[in-house]
Design goal:
This protein is mostly beta strands and 171 residues long. It has 4 helices and 10 strands, in the order ββαββαββαββαββ. The protein is 12% helix and 33% strand. It binds the ligand Nc1nc2c(c(=O)[nH]1)N[C@H]1C(S)=C(S)[C@@H](COP(=O)(O)O)O[C@H]1N2 and molybdenum atom (MO). Molybdenum atom binds next to loops.
Length: 171
Amino acid sequence: MSNDTQHSTEPPSADAESGTPTDTGPHVELRGRTTRSLSLDELAALPTVERVCTVTCASGDRTTATWTGVPVSDLLSSIDAPPTTTHLRVASDDGYCACIAVTAALDGLLAVSRDGSRLADTERYGTRFVGPSVDGERAVKGVVRIEPLELGADDDPTEWETLSLDDSTYG
Ligand SMILES: Nc1nc2c(c(=O)[nH]1)N[C@H]1C(S)=C(S)[C@@H](COP(=O)(O)O)O[C@H]1N2
Ligand SMILES: [Mo]
């Protein structure tokens, strides 16, 4: 007896290992000596804190809000960032990229909520790098990557960043 019918295909299992379907959405890559890639849900499930931060634009505009997010210090320990790290390069999906002194970044947050609302629900981005010592133009929206850098005294940190965009997605 012949059976030309192919064995039935397996049910889709693409998400079986990675978890919920939302894991296929935006991820933040943390590139230390260990690299991690976290979805928005995975990020929001980590221990978070609330911090009041003011985002001040060079134009003088400022907005103060209560941000909820994962402490940058926790993220850095979780990727085994070298103790010699001097700066963090924080990149957005719009091409924006800031280089932030680690001393300023350490009391910052990778925020997922502002004033109690998830950024993903109210903005076109789901994450934001904020901190009391992080200036407004470096409060990166839509973070896709955080990378520790070790810059020398003669290195110019602004050479590692691209702050102004001709065609800005997030402004
Ligand atoms: N990804 C991304 N983040 C960004 C910008 C941008 O163009 N792209 N603009 C920055 C600048 S210059 C400022 S002043 C603030 C503005 O934040 P607000 O829109 O929440 O006031 O976001 C910063 N973060
Ligand atoms: Mo700005």
